[in-house]
């Protein structure tokens, strides 16, 4: 089987315009067993290359670049960079995939999108992996992310860019130099004689408006969505995460779908699902009878 993904596009509607969402597709495109993997705030679908390779013999694996990231179109109006719009985009993706049942892996923002989608009546989700995210988010963790999102950057070489990204992403946990460079390359695009970030800096506009009061209100809505889930849930948490507390993770094992919790030592927000132990946990959950 080809060790590289195919690039497909899905139309997404916003007021007054259609935009194209790029998706990286692995495995047999006729396979009725479908896994959708959705990335975090500033990331893109190639984050899941390692996981997709591990599962593409059992699944048709589809990893979108959420609008404003990677190879997807950027929006004219940054107000469209929000979870309710992203949920609508994923409904378009599910229609394109024409699958009766879907499994889902969502890292951070991708998990919030998954909860929004899964809370809808008749949502075709069977199993969901929430990667270091849940219905109770810590304001300090959100503020840390907001400190570096949307800043214009330029580097002369890929290695310079990778070194910088490591300084703001140490919470992803330990990776070899080869693994880290593989994670960083899709995050970059050529600009002049060097490189810049491969996402629309305007995604920060909605994010930077977050306040403690808005987080509290948002958490209440997220708990409602979480408790409406009717699929099996695996919750992954970096043991040092500043976005999802251990107490919140434990509460998720007692409420709603009663998630199974697995924590990874030496990792914060968020596990990148590259290390073999992380991949094995996800694979075992998705493929178990």
Along the chain, the helix and strand elements come as EEEHEHEHEHHHEEHHEHEH
Spans of 5+ residues with little confidence (pLDDT < 50)? none
User: The CATH topology, please?
Assistant: Rossmann fold
CATH architecture descriptor name: 3-Layer(aba) Sandwich
Overall pLDDT: 95
Q: Strands of the largest sheet, in order across it?
A: 1-2-4-3-5-6-9-10
Short description:
The chain has 289 residues and is of the alpha/beta class.
Describe this structure in words.
By secondary structure, this protein is of the alpha/beta class. The chain has a single domain (6-287), classed as Alpha/Beta hydrolase fold, catalytic domain (Rossmann fold), CATH 3.40.50.1820. It contains ten helices and ten strands. It has an eight-stranded mixed beta sheet, with helices on both faces. Strands 7-8 form a two-stranded antiparallel ribbon.
């Amino acid at each position: 089987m080809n060790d590289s993904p195919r690039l497909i596009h899905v139309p997404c509607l916003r007021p007054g315009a259609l935009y194209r969402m790029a998706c990286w597709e692995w495995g047999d495109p006729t396979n009725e067993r479908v896994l959708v993997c959705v990335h975090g705030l500033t990331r893109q679908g190639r984050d899941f290359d390692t996981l997709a390779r591990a599962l593409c013999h059992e699944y048709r694996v589809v990893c979108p670049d959420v609008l404003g990231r990677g190879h997807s179109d950027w929006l004219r109006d940054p107000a469209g960079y929000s979870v309710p719009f992203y949920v609508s985009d994923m409904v378009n993706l599910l229609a394109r995939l024409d699958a009766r049942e879907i499994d889902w892996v969502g890292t951070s923002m991708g998990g919030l999108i998954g909860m929004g989608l899964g809370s809808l009546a008749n949502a075709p989700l069977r199993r969901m992996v929430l990667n270091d995210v849940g219905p109770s988010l810590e304001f300090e963790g959100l503020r840390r992310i907001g400190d570096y999102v949307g800043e214009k950057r330029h580097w002369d070489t890929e290695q310079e860019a990778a070194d910088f990204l490591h300084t703001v992403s140490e919470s992803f946990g330990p990776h070899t130099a080869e693994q880290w460079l593989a994670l960083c390359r899709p995050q970059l695009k050529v600009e002049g004689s060097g490189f810049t970030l491969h996402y629309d800096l305007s995604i920060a506009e909605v994010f930077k408006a977050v306040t403690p009061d808005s987080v509290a209100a948002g958490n209440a809505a997220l708990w409602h969505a979480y408790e409406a889930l009717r699929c099996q849930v695996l919750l992954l948490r970096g043991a040092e995460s500043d976005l999802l507390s251990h107490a919140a993770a434990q509460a998720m094992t007692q409420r709603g779908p009663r998630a199974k919790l697995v924590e990874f030592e030496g990792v914060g927000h968020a596990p990148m699902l590259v290390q073999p132990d992380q991949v094995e946990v996800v694979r075992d959950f998705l493929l178990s009878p």
